[in-house]
Amino acid sequence: MLAEPGKADRPLMTSQATLLRRTERWPKTGSQRDNAGSPGWVSKTCTTHHLPPRDCNDYWDEWKYCKSLRHRFHYYYTYGGKPDCQQWKADYTACKEWERRKSQAAKEALLQSEKVRQNEKQNNNPVWTMRKRPPADWHLPLDR
Questions:
Q1: Exposed e or buried b for every residue in 40-78, given b needs 16+ CB within 10 A?
Q2: Residue 99: which of 107, 109, 88, 89 has the closest Cα?
Q3: Which of 26, 27, 80, 136 has the greatest count of CB atoms below 10 A from its CB?
Q4: Cα–Cα distance for residue pair 120/105, rounded to 1 Å
């Protein structure tokens, strides 16, 4: 797949676990200043939310990947069903609405969707819980 003109530095497909954040440049304050005392600049995560959390094309790419035959086979093999791709399409629509019309409802819907996606990613942690004590029959011989 070829990159669009001007987008060679940005990958065309992002993983679902990746959340791209826009950053802004803010002046340094207090202890953040360098030794010479010049104001300088420091990069912080944008908290004003005047831009979507991802590029709208990323939502489109995720939707197209979700609808692909390869992903459908993989999802069926892994989970035994069809993937639900409508959230990616709804996020793309909300992102475009946010960019074009500065819609507050689209902004809230997109931010809520990203928050849910991040919570699912954090809650879907396949790490085992540590034992406090060994099992009661740990010393017995194994069956052969």
A1: eeeeeeeeeeeebbbbbebbbbbbbbbeeeeeeeebeee
A2: 107
A3: 26
A4: 23
Nearest to 48 by CA among 73, 69, 23: 23
10 pLDDT more than 60: no
Report CA dihedral (120, 121, 123, 129) to the nearest 10 degrees: 160
- Predicted confidence (pLDDT) at residue 102 exceeds the cutoff of 80: yes
* Domain locations along the chain: 54-123
Specify the DSSP class assigned to residue 36.
T
**What is the sign, positive or negative, of the torsion defined by CA atoms of 76, 17, 110, 12?**
negative
Q: Could you tell me which residues come within 8 angstroms of residue 46 by beta carbon, excluding any fewer than 6 positions away?
A: 21, 22, 23, 24
Amino acid at 76: Y
